[in-house]
Amino acid sequence: MPPVGAFYMQQIRSFKKFIETPKKVVITTHYKPDADALGSSLGLAGYLLKKGHDVKVISPTDYPDFLNWMEGEKEVINYEAGNKRKSKKLIDEADVIFCLDFNSLARINNMGEIVRRSPAVKVLIDHHLEPERFADFEFWDTGAAATAEIIYEIIKKLGDRELIDQPIAECLYAGIMTDTGQFKHPNTTKNVHIVTAELMALGADVSKVGRLIYDNNSLDRLKFTGYALSHKLNVLKDLRTAYFWISAEDLKKYNSKTGDTEGLVNYALSLKGIVLAAIIIERPEVVRISLRSKGDFSVNDFARDHFNGGGHNNAAGGVSDLSLEETVKKFEEVVKKYEKQLNKHFKETM
Ligand code: 5GP
Ligand code: MN
Question: Which residue of 24, 86, 244, 293 is surrounded by the most CB atoms within 10 Å?
Fold first, then answer.
């Protein structure tokens, strides 16, 4: 295996040779896939199908309804929803397993150990920090804004750019648009715009994709957002921190569906003078925390050090096995230790 961080294109030649002949392919991505996770998976699936491979996309869990316009979505196998045996068989018998948009096998829940034990060749394609070393091919680039951007680059380096049609281009565009926060986060590089322009040239209707993802709210979701903003947002002014805390009861009251809390944390980050934003949610088995920051304050480190998680410098997440109340208390205690840093970062980012 090459050292972590080795520029992934060095592997393209041997990968090209490997993928030349038809293979039984499984593509998987992290639990509760977002637009980049599912978009990069279905974009890659569309391409590999055109190359004559037998391709199955397996998601560890369900995903938001606002992603079900993606081509190939109807064929996605939801592991958790009654497909455990079928998924295990596919993973055991695959020639190659693509692991997209996640850096640790724990991110695919119970499927992680099945993938680890499978004799298939494993290909990691990801842009998160500090990946676990389990793959035979690693296309890993933390400089990429989205896994979808890496998929585009790989297809291009394989000499197959013209195989990207409108549905594939739109899946990939969705990943880039959402992971850059609509081209606003610091990961929005010149290359992001170049790749976006190329995807447009290949047929992506960017306005349509934007509408499908962002203008597709249920009334429940909007009302829930209003409720959370009015009643569940706490601001720790001296610590330049704002966080939401959401109980299982809150979710039930607003008939919350997968994806309904996605993006809420950004309202906390949008507050003037805030450097660190969080949302702490009571899920059925565990309390989850989602973190965002401005500037150089690393929520990847914060999530790793205190919430058994990780991600990127400005967007990360983790878990807590304490109760919701105890997790909120822990969060408030931990943040106090960063008072100086948070204030320093504020001055630097403004
Ligand atoms: P989100 O807050 O949108 O769920 O996640 C933000 C970023 O952190 C995403 O890139 C996501 O993949 C990553 N992330 C979220 N939760 C976890 C976690 O528990 N562990 C790790 N390693 N990464 C996470
Ligand atoms: Mn991503």
Answer: 293
